[in-house]
């Protein structure tokens, strides 16, 4: 499968067959400092959506009848990072949304620490009210910008997950070389970074090159409209090594979504691959630190809802 940039800006969220077939009704909507948020219910599924330019972008879907279900397909592939690290004692997620991925990891590995960082306190409130997000002694939710959280933290993690889409875009300061260097500095030996990178914009090539400028090995998991990128240190794992690790971790964690099955979707771009845009630039902050902090505050604000 070729991984290419396109020209679309509308994110398509793919669901498992049969999901959300009944009448859709609005439970609540609220305008926060950062987002225009809409919560809908359709059959047993509850979704969180962000409004931008008169379009709704799905951020989270949960199945209220099945807490371990991940109806949005790419979120299942966010869990493949467990194959790449021997331990998952401490995991960090940037971009909580309704808490579906973090909640799945917490329920599947209840003895391990899961920390999720979410910029918008209104989203956290909705997650607790409608999406059964229940922080406890091993599941923590922090209201903060993800990059500033890392900058101010001395903690390290076995796995860092980045899924911070706001409508059609990732905040730029979570896509730069400096951000990935900061994230790498918070990974333990053998740690892994997993990020959802939406492929249908021309930013995909630059995002890929930027992650690759910090992490020597990149694997890609196409997930029916999204690309989950796994970045790690050292040589790229061979197919046989990856399969063996997946079998070991699946036997250890007994996950709902089978790791040996998920890793069969792995793709990678070799050096010189014709699908890589060689003109794509590595993204950098290009600011002094104090200017970067001001930019983070400014760029986190929601966009004007224009036509």
Write structural notes for this entry.
The chain is of the alpha/beta class and 307 residues long. Helix content is 28%, strand content 25%. It contains 10 helices and 11 strands. The protein has helices at residues 73-77, 81-84, 100-108, 121-130, 146-151, 177-185, 203-214, 239-253, 259-262, 289-300; strands spanning 24-31, 36-42, 45-52, 55-63, 90-94, 113-118, 139-143, 157-162, 187-197, 217-222, 227-232. The strands form 2 sheets. Strands 7-6-5-8-9-11-10 form a 7-stranded mixed beta sheet, sandwiched between helices. Strands 1-2-3-4 form a 4-stranded antiparallel beta sheet, with helices on one face. Strand 10 and strand 11 (227-232) form a beta hairpin. Helix 6 (177-185) packs parallel to helix 7. Mean pLDDT is 85; it is low at 1-12 and 303-307.
Separate helix tally: 10
- Uncertain parts: 1-12, 303-307
Strand order of the largest sheet: 7-6-5-8-9-11-10
Strand content: 25-35%
Overall 3D shape: globular
Order of helices and strands: EEEEHHEHEHEHEHEHEEHHH
Q: What does the main sheet amount to? A: 7 strands, mixed
C-alpha termini separation: 35 Å
Q: Level of helix content?
A: 25-40%
Radius of gyration: 18 Å
SS-based structural class? alpha/beta
Please report the total strand number as a whole number.
11
- Chain-averaged pLDDT: 85
Features:
single chain; 307 residues; alpha/beta; seven-stranded mixed β-sheet; four-stranded antiparallel β-sheet; 10 helices; 11 strands; globular; disordered N terminus; disordered C terminus
